[in-house]
Design a protein that fits this description.
Elements lengths: L3 H5 L2 H14 L1 H22 L17 H32 L2 H6 L4 H7 L2 H22 L8 H29 L3 H13 L12 H7 L3 H15 L7 H32 L6
Length: 274
Amino acid sequence: MSALPGELRKLPAFVRRDFLVAWSYRLPFVTDWVGLAFQAFMFYFIGLMVDPGKLPTFGGEPTTYLAFVAVGIAIAAFMTLALGRVSAGIQQEQLAGTLESLLMTPTSPATIQLGTVVYDLIYVPLRTAVFLVVIAVAFGLDFYASGLLPALVVLLAFIPFVWGLGIASAGATLTFRRGSGAVGLGIGVLVLFSGAYYPLDLLPSWLASLAELNPITIAVDGMREPLLGGTGWEGVGKAVAVLVPLAVVSLTLGAVAFRSALRRERSRGTLGLY
């Protein structure tokens, strides 16, 4: 416990390093936001063809397709970015030849795991919130301002779940060197059947029932209720109560997977190889 303050003092160094690296490559910042804007623009025209009667109501309030899908776009983009950054952080350390030397320092593996994503834990939620505000202003969407904070709480409860998956993905990267493809496919399937882009009622009943158990579905619906239905904190409690235990399980399994991969590569002497 006495070493904890010392470990925490190392995290700003990780944030500064990742910020400087990200700022030195400005094009990804631009293309990331351009990609989000393109999706919003495309779904705006798709929404013109969607029958509003097919859309669910939130808090008894009807909604437009663009408002409905905007939350889904934000969560899907968050999943892709967050998971990619966690595994890419370990991969980059391997490619640069700094992973083994970093692990030889008196820094705990937990600090290194957190350090590789702490910049994104700050940037990604801000990016998601800014995207929702900008798209609401640009397209005149009727988001409830009172729902921004409750929706952010749902997102914060969802982040550790994604982080746990990312740590497991980083463990796969340590072992298999290229494990991001399988992770990307799995996340694509989860997003596809999450109701992010279309109402789950359109699915067969048995598949819709399974989709409602999807953590992404829980996060998306938990954010839509306060933003689109104006339910405030009332619609958030259930989502947070489900996401927090899932986050604990995800973090635990991810940490075990990463430590196992780390121990295996160290014993084989292949930790620095890519």
